[in-house]
Amino acid sequence: MQNNIVEEFNAYRSKMNEKLLDDNNKIIKRIFNLDTNAYMEGVLPKKTKELLGLGNSMVLRCDDCVRYHLEECHKLKISKEEVVEALSISLLIGGTIVVPHLRRAFEYWEALDATQN
User: Fold this and answer.
1) CA distance 71 to 63
2) What is the spatial distance between Cα 5 and Cα 2, in angstroms, rounded to a whole number?
3) Which of 35, 80, 97, 111 makes a 20 to 30 Å CA pair with 87?
4) 91-95 long-range contacts, Cβ below 8 Å, gap at least 24?
5) How far is CA 83 from CA 27, 74, 78, in A?
6) What's the pTM value of the predicted model, to 2 decimals?
7) Which DSSP symbol is given to 97?
8) If DSSP codes are grouped into helix, strand and coil, which group holds residue 59?
9) Would you state the pLDDT for residue 22?
10) Residue 65 Cα distances to 13, 24, 50, 68, angstroms
């Protein structure tokens, strides 16, 4: 069941991103390109950028963004302890309104771990 949330999220995200990009809107394409380039290795390592993206997404309470950054962190083999520490800072900054998103983040991380088993 937990694998299912990862598969469903990725399938939906891919399908809708394709539709967005197929529409050929210059602004949408530029934003997507900017996003891709912002997370590339640079002065800050990709790991740091993904943890920053995760933290900001959590404070902004965007579950889709949190899932995306969790998955990128998982691919980069960032440890659960590092992710939880980053999430704890987001909770501190965002306040208790972030708790429901924190729950969903933990659930998604468990689902990502389950995909490896």
Assistant:
1) 12
2) 6
3) 35
4) 91/58, 93/55, 93/59, 94/58, 94/59, 94/61
5) 32, 9, 7
6) 0.92
7) G
8) helix
9) 95
10) 11, 23, 11, 5
Domains defined for the chain, CATH in brackets:
2-115 (1.20.1290.10)
Q: 3-class SS at 100? A: helix
Cα 34–Cα 37–Cα 39 angle in degrees, nearest 5: 110
Q: Using CA of residue 68, residue 113, residue 105, residue 49, what is the dihedral sign? A: negative
Residue with tokens 């309470």: 61
Instruction: Measure the N-to-C terminal CA separation of the chain; round to a whole number of Å.
Output: 13
**For residue 2, what pLDDT is reported?**
58
Tokens representing 117 are 């088993």
Distance CA 95, CA 51 (A): 18
